[in-house]
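The aim of this short unit is practical: by the end, you should be able to scan a pair of folded records and say something sensible about each. We start with the first protein, listed as its amino acid sequence and then its structure tokens.
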Amino acid sequence: MTRTPTGRPAGARRRMTLKEAERFITLLAEAHPNAESELDFVDDYTLLVAVALSAQATDASVNRATKGLFRDAPTPAAMVALGEEAVGTHIRTIGLWRTKARNVVALSQALLDRHGGQVPHDRAALEALPGVGRKTANVVMNVAFGDSTMAVDTHIFRIGNRTGLAPGKTPRAVEDQLVARIPAPMLRPAHHWLILHGRYVCKARRPECWRCPATEPCQYTGKVLIAP
């Protein structure tokens, strides 16, 4: 991790102004004009399952696991019929697979019991499903239903604090700041712009500032603008 001269981890000099925040997001938009989820899915249900499986796992690893899973169980009823053991066989290459297999079957049964097998367009109903928290609900509402939600994963949490875009001690604090500070017309796609930026440029161990399109408004004190 880059360090400041005092020995503390390098972070943001200060919180961005609203004008700087809009400029930062605009520059990311220009760099990723066609940004979208990198998870493979075919409908609202397979999106929900894929997002639930993606906790503490890469999208690439989830896509490899769900290729066969969605072939064998493309609907809630088929997933329940497949059963926890068989689901586990499909997803054992991703983290926490035993718990996730149990949750996928349980949330599929809950969809059948409570929502006629459909994914509900309602935050409280989504968060009431087994294995579905606020981040997963936000992704589903954003991608499936077009809502202007901000799902704060590890990448967005890091960017919010490192750059000064939306500093916060918790994911919810960062989420609330992002929702308040990003212009409303940009909020929905900003979820994807920020994730891709964190995944491929503003990386955890060594941010590749020399490839960043938004170094000017960024308040990170440890910028390295020349490639090593």
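Turning to the second protein, read its sequence before its tokens, just as you did above.
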Amino acid sequence: MSIWMRLAQRLTGKHDTPPVAPAARLDDVTYNDAPHLDRFVFVGGLHRSGTTLLERTLAARYELSYLRATVPESEGQHMQSVYRAALHYGGPGKFAFSSTMRADLEKLDDLKDCRGRIIQDWSRFVVGDSPVLLEKSPPNLTKIAWLRKVFPGSRFVIMTRDPRAASAATLKWAHTSLDELMRHWDAAYTQAMADFSDADCILLRYEDLCADPEAELTRVAGFLNLTPRTDIQEVESRHLTLRNSNAKYIELHEGARYGAGIWDQLGYEL
């Protein structure tokens, strides 16, 4: 465990982040009212790391079911009642610091009951008829070990982005400092890599996805054993072009050096 993660464990307690309204169906979406789900793919990565881009692109290109609702970016964490969403633990830039979040998750030890309740909650918001459900929520990054037990046979995509870019892009949401956001990046991915297994986890860098989307999507889809769609679905206009926008965010750090961190293991020299 890094020194930043040990220090961050003390930064827990109540936060004044506003709650998300209860999930509801979208008016312009066709839902599957009787989904049969037997395999799960979880995408995790800190906010502004490209997880939504990846989820939308995979759902458009491959035979997958996915979730859609009136919650931020249709994240599954907001469509279930078993575990608390990251907002309860401080939200973007803070949740990975929370030892309370980890303790609360460990209390949910009736795994069969958790699985049944989560699937029941998610079933109302499923789009598509594939038995493979794609679910994306940033805090999946810190829940790999628990999700692995609740959903045996699942696979996990861990999305990374240069921590300087991800942190600066999150600054307007997090009400904290760039330095603290960098520490949060280190804490979150340190936990993810502690739970990483080559058997069911794959790493994807935002930078690599932007540089060669076809190769990276093919690599990820192969690991996940996905079947290409006969007809590619439309995606939102904001996801049509994959463009690396790191530079404008890295500039905000004004050349600051951050030393050693989990980012070294993940290919980022800071």
